[in-house]
DNA sequence: CCGGCATCGATACGATCGTATCGAAACAAG
DNA sequence: CTTGTTTCGATACGATCGTATCGATGCCGG
């Protein structure tokens, strides 16, 4: 058996390049040539890793989703007491250092509306997040008449909307954070009864 | 003075075509040729209406924003009693017949993150909506410690997030509507005190 | 050492894009 | 009718895209 290559590693490296470019130009704006240049490989190498551009984008968005859920899980394990607040805080991607990820996420969400395979991938991520939040809300609630699923959906949508508004420059990150914290506080209040 | 043409009307007709196509393929996916074909004019005619593609897209998104704010205003005038609930209901674009507009809006928002002129246009629309909602919340509130601006921001973000989740198929329109109504009900409750 | 195969990267190809160009057509003014 | 100006739509152009192709390269088993 002749030459052997670690394709998995290269796929990840390429996915990073995709993210960098998608952050700058949107996912429609990334070309195979640019990706190859950014990842410091030849175009042929990219083609051998992914059968098509679509496959490449799909892998990249999955990569981002994975990192996000990992980070949320890590936060949960580290500080179970403030689980809800911290979880939604991470999901909202408001912190400066995750601005790039937020941009990529939004870009792919917008594309997903028009490209079904992408939508499937993203729905999985959202379903996982909704389940997680639902569980956290249910745990925080005693046994009141609250509907944890509905609260989780509201939280997720609110976080997503705030992130979007920050990205467009309609809100500052601080303002969004305040709105989010207020909502979470109100939710805890409601759950306590 | 020889031949004269109503450019304003044609710009609108072309904008409609842009919306139809952007709804199907995303705004990156619309080409001048397709737009011209859809609007039943020649490519040259489109070029004479808009100096560039960017100018065309900008006009189109402005067109959509105009229609949206018009509709919200109409609702307000028609039924001032349930102003808040109806207003946010319209903004969320959850009703089936406005699904296309919602898709276009999301697509442009995603692009705006990467194209500053578009972002400016959209920020204007959002600022107008936020002001409107702030006013409605302030009117609904007596004189409690509530922060109308913050509540308006939460409402707007929640509506936007829910719309996005419906478009991706993560939530049904009904589920989103329920979440939204619950939130508005909670807000009214809070404002009453 | 060598023949064979996996991998390489450069290049070719065809399509599509936004935009520029230009002669023909259409209409008002003289 | 002729002239002058505006609008027309077809076509040309150059760039860029995703993808296919292919000879060179380098490693491994024998």
Automatic annotation (TrEMBL), chains A, B:
GO molecular function: DNA-binding transcription factor activity; transcription cis-regulatory region binding
Coiled-coil intervals: none
The keyword Repressor appears for this protein: yes
DNA-binding region (UniProt annotation): 31-50
InterPro entries reported in the protein's UniProt record: BetI_C (IPR039538), Homeodomain-like_sf (IPR009057), HTH-type_TetR-like_transc_reg (IPR050109), HTH_TetR (IPR001647), Tet_transcr_reg_TetR-rel_C_sf (IPR036271)
Alphabetized Pfam families for the sequence: TetR_C_6 (PF13977), TetR_N (PF00440)
Location of the HTH tetR-type domain: 8-68
Keyword DNA-binding (UniProt): yes
Domain of life: Bacteria
Keywords annotated in UniProt: DNA-binding, Repressor, Transcription, Transcription regulation
PANTHER family for this protein: HTH-TYPE TRANSCRIPTIONAL REGULATOR PKSA, HTH-TYPE TRANSCRIPTIONAL REGULATOR RUTR
Name of the featured protein: Transcriptional regulator, TetR family
């Amino acid at each position: 058996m002749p030459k052997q290559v670690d394709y998995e590693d290269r796929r990840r490296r390429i996915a990073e390049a995709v993210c960098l470019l998608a952050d700058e130009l949107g996912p429609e704006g990334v070309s195979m040539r640019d990706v190859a240049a950014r990842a410091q490989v030849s175009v042929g190498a990219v083609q051998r890793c992914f059968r098509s551009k679509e496959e490449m984008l799909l892998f990249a968005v999955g990569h981002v989703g994975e990192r996000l859920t990992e980070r949320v899980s890590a936060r949960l394990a580290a500080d179970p007491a403030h689980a809800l607040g911290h979880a939604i805080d991470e999901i909202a991607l408001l912190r400066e250092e995750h601005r790039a990820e937020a941009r990529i996420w939004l870009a792919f969400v917008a594309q997903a509306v028009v490209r079904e395979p992408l939508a499937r991938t993203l729905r999985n991520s959202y379903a996982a997040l909704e389940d997680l939040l639902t569980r956290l809300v249910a745990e925080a609630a005693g046994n009141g008449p609250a509907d944890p699923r509905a609260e989780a959906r509201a939280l997720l949508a609110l976080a997503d909307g705030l992130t979007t508004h920050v990205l467009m420059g309609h809100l500052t990150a601080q303002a969004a954070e305040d709105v989010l914290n207020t909502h979470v506080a109100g939710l805890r209040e409601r759950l306590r009864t």
